[in-house]
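hey so i finally got around to running the thing on that chain from the lab meeting. sorry it took forever, my laptop kept dying and i had to restart like 3 times. anyway pasting the input first so we r on the same page abt which one it is
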Amino acid sequence: MSDDKHDMVVGLEPESTSDSDHHSMDLVRKFDRELTRKIDLHVVPILLIMFLLAYLDRSNLGNARIEGLEKELHMKGTDYNVASMIFYLSYVLFEVPSNIMLKKFSPSTWLSTIMFLWGEQTLPLVAYTWAIRSYADTSDRNLCNVSRTYPDLSWFSSLSIFHRRCLYLMSMYYRRFELQRRLTLLFASGIVAGAFSGLLAYALAKMDHLGGYAGWRWIFIIEGLVTIVISAAAKFIIADWPEDAKFLSAEEKARLLKRLEGDANRGVAKMDRVDRPALKRIVFDWKVWVAAAMYLGAVNTGYVLALFLPTILKELGYTSSEAQIHSIPVYLVAAVCMISFAFATDKLRIRYPFILLGTTIASIGYIILLAGGSLPPNIKYMAVFFVAAGGHSTHPITLGWLANNVSGHYKRAFSTAIQISLGNCAGFVGSNVFLTRQAPRYPTGYATSLALMLVTAITATGFATGLHLENKKRDRGGRDYRLQLPSEQVDNLGDDHPDVRFCK
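ok and heres what got predicted. didnt touch it at all, straight out
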């Protein structure tokens, strides 16, 4: 490509409307389409596969539970709830440190390492649980039951910190209204994995007693081995940061960076160093904390379904095998709804109404399940579809919405990590409210999940209102005083820069 054409494509589009300028803009748009398609082919597919495996592995516990895990490990009462809760401890502890590590290592190295660790740890998990069973005494039974289920923190810490590193990486390649549908495709692959996990668990459970292992152990073994193999290949496929991407030419990198800088004035919204003023702006940004509460309310449903959907379906009167099979359409419908929401919210360039719609659909499902004592199983099964479709459609939008409204490398890294770290406290809630003694009605579980859906609706309303008021204030020049700060601070304001406008 000639230098003239290079300048024409990489630079800002011309403002005049002559025929030559129209031709120039057509070239720019064509170049952008080809560039976006190239990014889609190199960034999304491998992350999609890794996401699928991550959700597949995370669903193992719920599937293994109804295939005999509790019985073989002599788990009673709330043992399963405690084991599930420990999983989510890592979600809270490792989010911020992992985003810092992602800045120190290339994404291809860090993400593939995380993937290898969670796959590798499923194998000693199986051996460990087999060995410890023979000498667990009654006095330490609760502790042993938990440790048998999750013997190594590195397994679930690796699994927990993987998902949101993908969000961080993708947010560095796509403009605000290009991101949501691609981000949701990743989550949809996770939902499809939920459907596939039920079918796969049904098949692997038939290997019961093969090699001396119970069927539920084979679920961990086979899926862990697949994860290890894919992680080795992923190191050479995952895209690194845009400026280091090997699949982009110098011209394409320049154009990509220009596009991102022009998206809602992200060019002036930089935060490329962490100093005291920058940390203060991150910690005292109300958007981060409201978005964390919004995400907490929405993601609880995802955790509940991952851990308890097979159990919920079994309590509706299905056998273990039937419960595995009946979970498949629930996940598939949720995936379709999730993708539809994502395309619509990007097309219309608005997030808030779709969060309200999703929370409403899920709430209807929870209300039916709460009142479902005398309802026929088919009605309660329908309610599960409502819960899955509404909940799963909502929580990716809460993540994308905050990512759309924070700017600067470190601001985005810390903000998304804080949102996810605090939001994942929902795992402590979801893993402890579906109590065995309350089966099959689970009033505490359904009521708590309904309340958290209302939290998401309320905080989303506050988030949209706050963004609207802030945009109005900036339009009036109410934040222009920040331009009088020392130049080193003005160059590191992130989305606090007066020229930035937020999306609702």
